[in-house]
Amino acid sequence: MANTTTDDSRKENNQDLTLERSNASFNINEITEIIDGGVDKTKFRKEMEKLLFDDPLFKDFYKTFFKTRSELYEESIARGVKLFSLRQKYKWTDEQFEVIEDLVNHLFGMSLHFTMFIPSLERLATETQKAKWLPLATNFKILGTYAQTEMGHGTYLQGLETTATYDPVTEEFILNTPHKSSMKWWPGSLGKSSTHALVQAVLIINGKNYGMHPFMLQLRSLDNHMPLPGIEVGDIGPKMTVNYNDNGFLLLKNVRIPRQHMLMKHAQVSSDGKYTSSGPNKAIYATMVLVRVKMTKWVHDALRKAITTAVRYSAVRHQSKMDDSGPEPQILDYQTQQYKLFPVLADTYALFFMSRNLRRQYNRMMEDIRNKGSYKMLAEIHSISCGLKGLSSKIGIDGASICRTACGGHGYLMVAGISEVLGLLHSVVTAEGEYTVVCLQTARYLMKQIAKVSVGEVVTESCEYLNVDPQSFSCPLQTPADCFNLTFLCDIFRNRANSLIRSVASRLQIAIESGTPQHIAMNNNLQSLVRVAEAHSETIMVLDFTAAVTSLRTSPETIKVLTSLCQLHALHTIVKHAGDFMETESVGLEQIKWIREQELKLLEIIRPNAVALVDAFDLHDDSLGSLLGVYDGNVYERLYESTKYNPMNQNVVHPSYHKYLKPLMSGEMISKL
Ligand SMILES: CC/C=C\C/C=C\C/C=C\C/C=C\CCC(=O)SCCNC(=O)CCNC(=O)[C@H](O)C(C)(C)COP(=O)(O)OP(=O)(O)OC[C@H]1O[C@@H](n2cnc3c(N)ncnc32)[C@H](O)[C@@H]1OP(=O)(O)O
Ligand SMILES: Cc1cc2nc3c(=O)[nH]c(=O)nc-3n(C[C@H](O)[C@H](O)[C@H](O)COP(=O)(O)OP(=O)(O)OC[C@H]3O[C@@H](n4cnc5c(N)ncnc54)[C@H](O)[C@@H]3O)c2cc1C
């Protein structure tokens, strides 16, 4: 059935893709609208695609791969400025701007201004401070970043060394980065762009350390962009990816700022140096929770680009023979190719439904905070978002790596677009809380919840399955067909997480009761704690996907195809962690055999709809950023065309021939030695 993407410049479609599309059993527009969030939102996205991709600044993403770092930075600033101006002109909401961010692959300068700087002001500043700074920030009179991580510490925030020492005589804070390890290192858009930074620093009053607090710091002159006195700032250098971004360093030497520049919503310092606080002490970590929630959606956005590329390419690529007398098959027809790609496709959909639910929960928490001043949900949302940010980034990296290798040699080209996606995903696994560290935050919460169960206290919704005694569980899979029963699969996931959590909790308790110091007992169980966080997060993903497909109000064909993906996501996750599921007696050996067989059946079921299922993401070619994944499937033509933009091909004979190769070949070089 017809794809809704229209691009007049498209040539005739590759015949394989045309056939694949005509074979689809469902209307792809139904899924597109679910993913966009409704018909109006699909319409908005398409209007934005037209607006952006008619502009050469945003077109032909793949050309960025031929640019130097400085060119990339400059272009990203031009893009940022254009987007910010359009945002102002059309009065885009935050939600609409998030759609734009995805369309342009986050490739624009100053992205932290809206991702962290303004949200930090909204969450950490008093009403008076907001009235002063928010209009400046939203009208781009100041451009800001979030400067927390230091050379010496990113994870352990209690170890931060940047100081803000209060001077009651002048009613100022004096900011210093006393050692090399204290310099801020990593903040996005800090190196060359930002005029201001939200600096997290240790508050010191009368020699007493009050821990990390947020301060508003002007970095550069608003007239000539020069750093202000006492401030040294620059770019930290080339990275694995996001090289358009000027991630920066910042050294501070006795930089004085007014007392009112401490963001004082949750903690206050009076003019005579009295410290007071209100709200939970982790409220100053609020922006990190928001970004972790957003990142789960970013991973979906990124992975759908990789899987769209790999599935479409696998439909147009023919290689080898299954049968000597037949034609070379599409590589998508090999069972091994399907086993690589379809679980990734299923994960991509799972990530969508999970991130949608997480965002809804986050929004509910924010409403509670705003309307009732209640932080009741904070600990649970922090725990869930940590685990899901970690898990999604892992799924993203694993999935995009599979997509890259599934595209063979061409997948290794930058213009295939998958390496770029993979690089972005590598930033997500580390930024905003390193993988292990965030998983351990989730595990810490789970240990507290299971302790509550043991004393009969009520646990939060995400942990309700802990109320069941695993001893009472018996595997519900009685026949191979039961492996498709989502209710059974959900129970299996719940039991595996429940058993693992209880078993680590009991090991910790025994160790501590037998005299092992708590920190040693914890360290001896860290790996198991990460494992329970993963099990809990995987359970949430399966439950969210199941809840979504069982409550869809759409055609039976669409429900059927999404249900198959949900089944595959669950079954493949069980196979990946078969050891865990068997160890916890959530399934037996016989069931694992059935599950493997049923996984293969699902590959056959999904195969006719594979291309339609990636088309349903409805990615514009300029957003996809891949010459292998183009909608029309004319891959080889595009690859050849791309060589014309390659600076290496601008001279038929490269100058190095005259400088080096010719002297070698003529013997001139050797005779000079
Ligand atoms: C596909 C990709 C597309 C695009 C990509 C584009 C661009 C590149 C990508 C990314 C760039 C964007 C953004 C990145 C920006 C950053 O990285 S900003 C820096 C982020 N830094 C971190 O995340 C630091 C991680 N560390 C921490 O969060 C904390 O230090 C810690 C949680 C590990 C420990 O905190 P401490 O205060 O030291 O520990 P504690 O005293 O033991 O306290 C723990 C208790 O506090 C609770 N808690 C911790 N955090 C929070 C929170 N955020 N909210 C609520 N509660 C929190 C925790 O639960 C404990 O509570 P208890 O009741 O158990 O005591
Ligand atoms: C692309 C990118 C963009 C970024 N943007 C920003 C930004 O805008 N602003 C900003 O302030 N920061 C930013 N950061 C910094 C980022 O938040 C930190 O790098 C991240 O939080 C990880 O901290 P770290 O570098 O100190 O890692 P480390 O903590 O040094 O991690 C190294 C290893 O130590 C392990 N480890 C550390 N602590 C523990 C523990 N308690 N238990 C078990 N293992 C542990 C980790 O698991 C990891 O294996 C960015 C980073 C990147 C890569």
TrEMBL record:
Is Lipid metabolism found in the keyword set?
A: yes
Matches recorded under SUPFAM superfamilies: Acyl-CoA dehydrogenase C-terminal domain-like (SSF47203), Acyl-CoA dehydrogenase NM domain-like (SSF56645)
Its primary localisation, in coarse terms, equals other
In its UniProt record, a GO molecular function of this protein is: acyl-CoA oxidase activity
Question: GO biological process: what's one of them?
Answer: fatty acid beta-oxidation using acyl-CoA oxidase
Which of UniProt's keywords are assigned here? ATP-binding, FAD, Fatty acid metabolism, Flavoprotein, Lipid metabolism, Nucleotide-binding, Oxidoreductase, Peroxisome
Q: Which domain of life is it from?
A: Eukaryota
Q: Name it.
A: Acyl-coenzyme A oxidase
Q: Which organism is it from?
A: Mytilus edulis
